[in-house]
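User: Predict the complex with guanosine-5'-triphosphate.
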Amino acid sequence: MTTTSTDIPTTGGTSHKQLAAWVEEVAALTTPDEIVWIDGSQEEYDRLCGELVDAGTFVKLDDAKKPNSYWCASDPLDVARVEDRTYICTKDEDGAGFTNNWMAPDQMKTEMEALYSGCMKGRTMYVIPFVMGHLDADSPMYGVELSDSAYVVTNMRIMARIGADVLKQMEDTDADFVRCLHSVGAPLEPGQQDVAWPCNETKYISHFPEERTIWSFGSGYGGNALLGKKCYALRIASAVAHDEGWMAEHMLILKLTSPEGKSYNIAAAFPSACGKTNLAMLEPTIDGWKAEMVGDDIAWMRFGPDGRLYAVNPEFGLFGVAPGTGWSTNSNAMQTIEKGNSIFTNVARTKDGDVWWEGATDEKPAELIDWKGNPWTPESSEKAAHPNARFTTPAKQCPMIAPEYDNPNGVPIDAILFGGRRATTIPLVYQSRDWNHGTFVGATLSSETTAAAAGAVGVVRRDPMAMLPFIGYSATDYIQHWINIGKDNDESKLPKIFGVNWFRKSDDGKFLWPGFGDNSRVLKWICDRLEGKVEADEAPIGLLPKAEDIDVTGLDMSADEVAASLAYDAEAWNKELPMIEEWLAKFGDKLPTELSEQLATLKKNVQN
Ligand code: GTP
Ligand code: SPV
Ligand code: MN
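Assistant: Here is the predicted structure with guanosine-5'-triphosphate placed in the model:
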């Protein structure tokens, strides 16, 4: 082992001068005991997992049940994204916009440098070179995460393309990269016993989009700590995309093939824990339709030479919500994790080395160890798994992954869906009249909050394009960017935009629509609309399906129930209008005129 200029032992180094200098600079600030350069190999992964087992962080699962897989529980106070601790640090406060927390870059750095000072004492600093998207993309999007968490390294290896070949290509091309600094914020004094899940009560998830830099402190949880995902591929990338004329969106990408053999690519934006992974892994319940997954959380969309919008999934793995994922709802996800090589965080485990969560099986196991480590039986009042428990699993293990997943040029998108979790008001599906109206549907998207973020659950909030927590710049500029995409491009080649809601409930509180695989019936109608095969009814909010055009063959639903899920509810929309107006008022005089016109039209339509 060599040492750095500050005498810290290190397993590697780099000919990339800026990277070498930055690693030295961070090491001098955070003073780890050693620096380990991550090569991304299986041996390295197995060694780190072994160390995590020894540390009490991981429990190895039974290889016969989940090969090469681990169970892990976080600190009960570190289970989700922390939106109130997430900052966009632009020089100018306006740069962060009205939806983000803002602090001046210098002030944030001063505060965080104090926290980072000596914060890796007693720990290892890992250097994780990674690329979001493909290594053979036209301009590969590199990042390097420096982290003092082996949990982060093991999860990053599943979630992103990492390691020696990425570093080599960065060196060969002297590439620019996003600097991602992460610490759990729990230095160890000599002889001090570590805990299974080190973290800090003080948390900061800070982004410096102008410097393409991310600083995260205090949390080990996915979205706060796996910095390639939400921090880079959405917040930083959305700011880059705005400047360069493309889009980084919180969308799944699904390839759907009709019985006639025609393929459609659908991108869909739903807020966190509102059904992206499930729709991405759709098992159609209608004959002859085939679904393949391209991506389950993030879409990077750029215009191709033919003027169409092409989407790429920048990720390498799935960080999926466990509860509600089961053989009857999402067998593709279950098959993916069955193959092993997965990490389960905050789920329950069985005494014989398997994992379980609410909804995994219809029948509850007689006894479990819950996510907090306590004995659990079906009579227990608490849930066995945390509602935001997650599995980290390689995307390639998904039995229905599309071959196009490996194509750095992505797939041309035919339709964009916006959906949220709304018990009332929003019908099962409706089509927007044009791009600007579709942008309005996205800009006014609303959803009940979920356990994916710390805070209250079940509160309706506006979540523009499902990007509220992920826009890395000003929301007004973001919405304007969507309008500009429509203005600057041939609209006939742009995707058609639809609104959907799988979560509408009857008065007695039951879901009106069966959801999951039966959502293929809604997608079929969307494809029929793209083909001009079916007419739609002009409604105040857009174009609604005629009930007879939704294929309900084999569904156990009465005509009244189908009608109720599809219906435009005038009374509910009259209540919704003031909420939409209040939301759009926040954009002030920066609301694009195209959207104020859409609002005026909606008002006129709903009130008549
Ligand atoms: P993030 O990973 O947080 O971005 O979430 P996601 O959008 O990928 O959501 P996911 O597909 O993991 O679903 C979240 C929860 O919603 C799970 O508990 C699912 O079982 C449930 N869910 C997904 N699709 C449907 C549906 O069509 N109907 C109903 N009722 N529930 C659904
Ligand atoms: C989400 O919350 O939208 C997720 C999980 O996909 S996380 O990576 O934690 O953000
Ligand atoms: Mn997500």
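The radius of gyration is 24 Å.
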